[in-house]
Amino acid sequence: MIRCIASSLLFALLALGGSAPAAAAPAAPAASAPSGVWYEIFVRSWADSNGDGIGDLNGVTAKLDYLQSLGVSGIWLMPINPSPSYHGYDITDYYGINPQYGTMADFQRLLDEAHKRHLKVIIDLVINHTSDQHPWFKAARDPASPYHGWYSWAGPHTDLQEQDAAGPQAWHAMGAAHYLGDFSGAMPDLDYDTPAVRREMIKVGQYWLKKGVDGFRLDAAQHIYLDFKADLDNPKTLAKNIAWWSEFRRGMNAVDPAAYIVGEVTRDSADQLAPYFKPLDAAFDFPLAKRLIASAGSERAGDLAAWIAHTDAAYRKVAGKSGVDAPFLSNHDQDRVMSQLGGNPQHMRMAAAMLLTLPGQPFVYYGEELGMRGRKPDPNLREPMRWNRATDAPGETTWEASTSHESPTVSVEAEQADPDSLLHYYTMLIHWGSRLGVLRDGTFHAYAAGNPHLAAWQLDDAGNRVLVVHNLSGRAQNTTLGDRRFHAVLLHSRPGVTLRNNRLQMPPYTTAILQ
Q1: Is 335 considered catalytic here?
Q2: Four-CA torsion 330, 302, 345, 470, nearest 10 degrees
Q3: Which of 113, 232, 271, 512 is deepest in the core (most CB within 10 A)?
């Protein structure tokens, strides 16, 4: 109890600038446990170590201390394999490193240095499709090649106009033949009814686990068999996806049973996502992201807590425990959070506060902690990370010019020096998760706050019970608690939170954790 109160006071000082050194990394007490927070990195945009304007693996290694100070438990690297595209989601060699990013020795050094800092590393595994420049596909153009059966080809009765489940068209012409490519003609789909494909992709996963990676983010996990819109809710298609990922999981367990595997499954409800929690550790919670941003932007809780309670119950029913969700606010395919919230910094803070006080393993997209902006098309969402006030400073990536024209204040250099910055705020919240295990692993219960501007939930584990309350509005709010078990303010994001005679008073845009 004394330790937690001391942590609360220190975090409050950090948020207000009481003792944080002006130019140092955000200070925080040593974590007693992992925060459970993952940080998504687009290597090309992260940090440039050799002056060519392109981010690289050595640049990631150079910034590990920043990630450690932020308090995250691990990083997710977007594709690092060789690819003809800037984004890397069309791979030409599953066993190699993109030469623009460095060498396998550079990657091994990154893994070793991350693990020294107790940071886990997962990598994007893009195995729904290959590049059309992959040697397999080049060979597959010959119907006599054994690789021909590794891809899906149209037959004489195929409807070439059938609506694609993921992209503008499913079938793509190559001479007189047509091949399946859910996302584009440059990304031909592999055929997972071919045993050799399944064996090879298990081999790929095992290869990287043996290298030392801690798991995978599975790109397009639902599209292994979901190719056409007509099959979107087809239980047979779902069953085939689950069967494949179960086989993949068994293959990974043979190397590392603790490997963390999270899937990209873009469905609209927890009930549609829940089946993937059988073979996978988690699936990204796309519907929750929309709800969190909507509540932050409207300054109203609505039915958010009840909706999250249903989500937690759905996942717990399959996984057998709470704390398995993979919540997030935005990623490399979506408008950045600050842009979705119209540039409102207080709404951004409240969205972050809700995200980082939910059970599970939250994901933060790089630059989100600075308030970077970006709207579609996709390259604008993946612009260079801002390390310095000057965009041409050493280490900055310059492969893509900024379209958001951020102020120099939206940079690590500027925000480290500002004790009231969004960066310090994120650091405080992430370290809360490392101090209170119940925030990471607790069972979620909706809590009726009796005030439309207060989002509240109770979290329980074997030895703790806390009440999380967020004032989403720009005005002070109060409520009378209906449960006298909560009698003290354990943590708060800003001063002025009081709890007297069961009456909770909260300043504008504030988060409090009660015990």
Answers
A1: no
A2: -110
A3: 512
Q: Which two tokens stand for residue 339?
A: 């842009």
Which candidate in 124, 264, 285, 415 is catalytic?
Answer: 264
pLDDT at 9 over 80: no
Q: What angle do CA 243, 245, 246 make, to 5 degrees?
A: 60
Rg, Å, the chain Cα set: 23
| Cα–Cα distance list, 442 to 98, 264, 461, 478, 492 (Å) | 40, 24, 5, 25, 19
Counting beta carbons within 10 angstroms of the beta carbon of residue 337, is it exposed (0 to 12), middle (13 to 18) or buried (19 or more)? buried
For residue 2, pLDDT over 80 is answered with: no
Q: What confidence category does residue 10 fall into, taking pLDDT thresholds of 50, 70 and 90?
A: very low
Average pLDDT over residues 144-164: 96
Distance from C-alpha of 495 to C-alpha of 488, rounded to nearest angstrom: 14
* Residue tagged active-site, from 48, 90, 132, 219: 219
Task: Please choose, from the candidates 281, 294, 288, 295, the residue with its C-alpha nearest in 3D space to the C-alpha of residue 249.
Answer: 281
Percent helix, percent strand, percent coil in the chain, to nearest 5:
35, 15, 50
**pLDDT reported for residue 357:** 97
Residue 14 has pLDDT above 80, yes or no: no
- CA triple 451-454-456, angle to 5 deg: 110
- In which residue are the tokens 């609505």 written? 302
**12 Cα distance to chain centroid:** 26
Cβ contact 468:457 at 8 Å: yes
pTM check: above 0.90: yes
Mean pLDDT calculated for residue range 402-413: 92
The conformation of residue 156, written as its DSSP 8-state character, comes to T
281 counts as catalytic: no
Q: Which of 285, 123, 283 is nearest to 216 (CA)?
A: 123
Q: Tell me the C-alpha distance between 497 and 489, whole Å.
A: 8
pLDDT at 99 over 60: yes
What does the pLDDT look like over 245-272, one tens digit per residue? 999 999 999 999 999 999 999 999 999 9
Beta-bridge partner residues of 263: 218, 283
Q: What is the pLDDT of residue 32?
A: 53
Q: Tokens at residue 89, please?
A: 């989601």
Residue 25 burial (CB count, 10 A)? 17
DSSP 382-428: SPPP--SSSTTSTT---SS--SS---TTSSHHHHHS-TTSHHHHHHH
Instruction: Report the first-to-last Cα separation within the chain, whole angstroms.
Output: 10
Residue with structure tokens 């584990």?
Answer: 461
